[in-house]
Amino acid sequence: MKVIQTKIKDLLIVEPDVFSDTRGWFLESHNKEKFRELGIDVNFIQDNHSFSKEKGTLRGMHIQNAPYTQSKLVRCTRGAILDVAVDLRKDSPTYKNYVAVELNEENKKQLFIPKNFAHGFLTLTDNVEIEYKVDNYYNKESERCIVYNDIDIGIEWGNDSPILLERDKNAPQLKDCDINF
Fold it and tell me: What is this structure's pTM?
């Protein structure tokens, strides 16, 4: 297993070891001890699975307020996504910076997103499935969204008319959001 540090401290790309033979392949998507040795010491408590049927579907940018902030380990098991994480740690030198990584069923990469980051993704193919682990339970009252095209962040999605839910389309700019961390 290999961990690649992105331009934002603590935001990591995880490349699992893939063992292939004539039958197919095998990988460990998570191994608590190996992750700890690689510097990811997180107690994941829930697995989530998401399906998006159409290319160009954008889900995000989502955040959980304290005390329900979440670290995530995201992987795409079918199709391809542009996975995006925005650093919202106000004391960070990379505050409001983002990283975008293509995750797909072929490269099997994963993105480890620490607490206090906004997260979203754009589907690059039809029939996309992602699975992600979180280290805190979802709390509806703590959920917040910032608009995917926030002018102060400037995410380059490569899609000018994504498929969005109204709540994501009409989410506030970061400067108008009541994020409490």
Answer: 0.96
Are 163 and 58 in contact, with CB atoms under 8 Å apart? yes
User: Catalytic residue among 68, 95, 98, 132, which?
Assistant: 132
Q: What structural domains and CATH numbers belong to the chain?
A: 2-176 (2.60.120.10)
Q: Which tokens is 16 given?
A: 């699992």
> Does residue 132 carry a catalytic annotation?
yes
Label residue 181 by pLDDT band (50, 70, 90): confident
* Residues 6+ positions from 174 with CB-CB distance below 8 Å: 88, 96, 118, 146, 150, 152, 153
Question: Is 98 marked active-site?
Answer: no
Q: What is the pLDDT of residues 30-51, one digit of tens each?
A: 999 999 999 999 999 999 999 9
